[in-house]
Amino acid sequence: MVLLKEKLEELEYKGEKKDIKIGIIGAGYVGLVTSVGLSYKGYDVLVFEKNKEKLSLLKKGISPFYEPDLHRFLTSALNSGRLKFIDEVSQIIKECKYIYICVGTPIKEDQTYDMFFLDLAAKEIANHLPTNERKIIIIKSTVPPGTARWFQKIIYRYRRGKKTNIEVASIPEFLREGNAIYDFFNPNRIIIGIDNKEIVDDLRQIYHDFPSPIIIVSTIEAELIKLASNTFLATKISFINSISDICEQLGCDIENVRMGIGLDHRIGLDFLKPGIGFGGSCLPKDLNAIISLFKEKQIDPVLFEAVKKINNDRINLLLNKIKKALWNVKGKNITIWGISFKAGTDDIRESPTLKLIPMLLKEGANLILYDPKATNNFKNQYPQYSVNTSIKITENIYESVVNSNLIVITNDWEDYKKVNFSKIYELMETPIIIDGRNILDHALISEHGFEYYRIGVNHESS
Ligand SMILES: NC(=O)c1ccc[n+]([C@@H]2O[C@H](COP(=O)([O-])OP(=O)(O)OC[C@H]3O[C@@H](n4cnc5c(N)ncnc54)[C@H](O)[C@@H]3O)[C@@H](O)[C@H]2O)c1
């Protein structure tokens, strides 16, 4: 049955217990959500996370990152005794028939995936694998097509001829940070990539009570589906961003135009919102990876190169809007609302704000940064900015606008809509807002007296 988002609050931790033990390697966004979700579904879940600091937080029931509803699910899972964080990966490999690989696959300088963590996981599995016992290894990480087959080969290699009975499957993850728990219970589809039909039933067994179609494909097809899906989403964003640019030139309002386009069911409104470009740990990385893959196979990646170029140019367009609105940037106080790459998460990986900050500093601006959840991550990952006297980081949205000359909105938290804009107006030196995500109600904001600029609208003609 499909679980309605509003009902997530009411979901109680009482699913029927199943007599299957699952191991998870890597407890980041994907691994941790998969762990609490599978334990809710009734499985005994053992989790190994190699980062000791994260592991010790997890043992205390503290998530190392922010994700709505996760804390509640994590607490219930630990209290039920079905979820355990363990110190030795060997325990997973010895005790669990199913082993999920959820380690990171960051992008390297040459724009291909870094397989270091996967290689490490393969070695650990090979070192502890009991002889002859059947194990099913499921790769959830996003990887280049062909990885599952490589993974199997690498394990055999590390086994150095010892008896081995493993199958490697690919079940790519499609969760959205900020909606991850909901997405775990309601995936649009479950892609099961296998190269040996004998394990179909084993894997169907795990996913039989999800309300989603299950598609059985080869491992290489599953891996390509994940890459291609993210590339398509990236393409949709760059498409609407291009249309928003022409809207500005023609005196059209992108909000009207996107409605007119997106209400066509063949197109859809999702991912059809203009802005300052996509970020995060997935879309930029997977786009780069598909470009590299096409080049490696000597196919022209012209479409994907264009998507990337359009995305990279967005931040310059935003900078130009700021410069144009302020007339002089040097010495101005600029407030940035938004550090994480989108609402609902404290994840700042590849956030457009990280590109904007040095650009504005170079122009001589003073910056005041605010984000509902990501300030701590920012301080920890960019300590150099905490000691920069031109940057102030605040937890209070009103404090962020005191004597400010301009607010630029870079992510799409609903919280921004709820502030008292009369108060914001009073606190600012010059009340200007550039809404890089078109999330505010422009009529209301203009009524308050702000100079308000959105993406995809020609403000000179309006
Ligand atoms: N974050 C998302 O929204 C999302 C969505 C779909 C797919 N993915 C893909 O899933 C994978 C994981 O993404 P993430 O966001 O969870 O990454 P992450 O960096 O948040 O988490 C990965 C975790 O694995 C741990 N790890 C690495 N090697 C390990 C090992 N050998 N043993 C134990 N732990 C190990 C790391 O310490 C880290 O905590 C990536 O390939 C990513 O592209 C991510």
Labels describing this entry:
Rossmann fold; alpha/beta; globular; 462 residues; binds nicotinamide-adenine-dinucleotide; six-stranded parallel beta sheet; 17 helices; 42% helix
Write up this protein.
The chain is built from 17 helices and 14 strands. It has 462 residues and is α/β, with parallel strands linked by helices. The protein has two domains: 5-217, Rossmann fold (3-Layer(aba) Sandwich); 232-454, NAD(P)-binding Rossmann-like Domain (Rossmann fold). A six-stranded parallel sheet has the order 3-2-1-4-5-6, sandwiched between helices. Strands 11-10-9-12-13-14 form a six-stranded parallel sheet. Strand 1 (21-25), helix 1 (29-40) and strand 2 form a beta-alpha-beta unit. Helix 4 (89-95) packs across helix 5 (116-128). 44% of the residues are buried. Nicotinamide-adenine-dinucleotide is lined by residues 25-31, 48-51, 54, 102-105, 117, 120-121, 140-142, 173, 175, 177, 281-282. Nicotinamide-adenine-dinucleotide binds at residues 25-31, 48-51, 54, 102-105, 117, 120-121, 140-142, 173, 175, 177, 281-282.
